[in-house]
Amino acid sequence: MSKATIPIITAFERSPDRGQGQARDMRVRWALEEVGQPYEVRLLSFSEMKESAHRMRHPFGQIPTYEEGDLALFESGAIVLHLAERHAGLLPEDANARARAIAWMFAALNTVEPPIVERGMAWLLERDKTWYGERQVILEDRVHVRLRELSSRLGDAEWLDGVFSAGDLLMVTVLRRLNGSGLMESYPSLCAYVARGEARPAYKRAFEAQWAVFTGKAPNG
Ligand code: GTB
Description:
This protein is an alpha+beta fold.
């Protein structure tokens, strides 16, 4: 990437989570901060996301997107992978270790995130239904299966496969979606893992940037 090309990402003008860093621009911001790539942000209202100008960038009318010169990308995982492939710091040099880190990226998005999102969507859209209690138990069980398996694999390790990678970056953002649910608390090693991710200076800069969009000030300001 030419140094002169400052990538532009899109994010919510007003995030429904009130700046808690749950929207998926957070993972892109974090990756950009990890690799030291400055970026600009185009903030979009919900109606702007559905207009044709934005649908040219994102066929499903969502955030985040990423523009860098002639390249326009959507899908947070694809954007993080793009950044990780073009900059040092998010994927190991060794070919096999790199392939394993990419496998963890897919695991975060394809295996761990779906049951977490399904549980969250049910709470958002179905919690007034008479059958919600029964469904909640099933959905929470599915989340617990993945948390147990992930916790068992992580053990006492610092990161999922040696050094911090884009796989960890995505996994931490996925696990953070359980904040406030009470589901993570029985997995101390996963809580410590998320805390390690959140303690990274690049994470903090990314969090503060998206927080400032919502509040107009720094987290402790
Ligand atoms: N698979 C896509 C990706 O990874 O980029 C999914 C993109 C996506 O779901 N984008 C959401 C969006 O644009 C924002 S992140 N939604 C608007 C729409 O579809 O019309 C999902 C999200 C939003 C808000 C919270 N929150 O407030 O807690 C959490 C997660």
